[in-house]
Amino acid sequence: MPSKTINVPEIGEINISKRRGQKTIRISLHGSSVRVSQPAWLPYSAGESFVKSRVSWVLEHIKPQENFQDGQQIGIRHTLKFVPGDSLKYRNKDNLLEITYPQGTGKDALNKFISEKVEDVLRKEAESYLPERTTQLADMFNFKFSKVSVRKLKRRWGSCNSKKQIIFNYRLMSLDTLHIDYVILHELTHTVHMNHGPDFWAHMESVLPNSKKIAKTVRRAS
After folding, report:
1. Helix %, strand %, coil % for the chain, to 5?
2. H helix intervals, 71-160
3. 58, 27 in Cβ contact below 8 A?
């Protein structure tokens, strides 16, 4: 698939690809990266003009790339540590995520490397922590569920179906413990009330006071 990389000052590097059979120009966002696909017969300048005409929309919807810092907390159990060295390496020992990097490593390359390791840590932490904490809260407030699983969800922190099977987004571990408990209790309450009606919120309030206020903070973090 032919492609070209351009630079738009307000956004940064953008990949434009030509695709056979495609009839329109499309913009897709992947985290902090922006991609444009267009019909194969169009010149690259068409895709470039298209994305430049929609800079405001892109800036509004793009997810900023995280800038990791030495000492930053990752999840609820891990801490990030930077160590200058001869090559780009990673070690996870005693809940310390040690990133060794050579002098002159580009910011984008370093952030991409760290992001991949952090995603792996969050997933493993979620698989360890969330089922156990769900059981604790269910026992505490007399909820019954059939199963807890952890996945990568695009837009939700969690879900619960009519069989009382609960799914959590592993990136839930990037929140603090109060907001993690809110999401767990939210899904546990769905084992009793499958909608968001008055009975649901009354039940939520009984197990976690100020639930609606907490919910607003959790939604902003998604």
Report:
1. 40, 25, 35
2. 107-141
3. yes
Within-domain flag for 67:
no
> Is the pTM here over 0.85, yes or no?
no
Residue 127, Cβ neighbours under 10 Å: how many?
Answer: 15
Tokens 């020992």 identify what position?
93
Range scoring the smallest mean pLDDT among 40-54, 60-74, 155-169, 202-216: 60-74
Residue 167 lies in a domain: yes
Tokens of 129: 């922590």
Domain boundary among 38, 61, 84: 61
Predicted confidence (pLDDT) per residue in 46-94, tens digit: 999 999 999 888 877 776 556 788 899 999 999 999 988 888 898 998 8
Burial code of 164-182, b = ≥16 C-beta within 10 A, e = fewer?
bebbbbbbbbbbeeebbbb
The answer, yes or no, to whether residue 36 has pLDDT greater than 80, is: yes
Q: Are strands 33-39 and 12-19 parallel, antiparallel or unpaired?
A: parallel
Last residue of a domain, one of 61, 85, 106: 61
Six token digits for residue 1: 């698939």
Domain count, the chain: 3
Q: Residue 88's domain spans which residues?
A: 73-121
Residues 27, 83, single domain; the answer is no
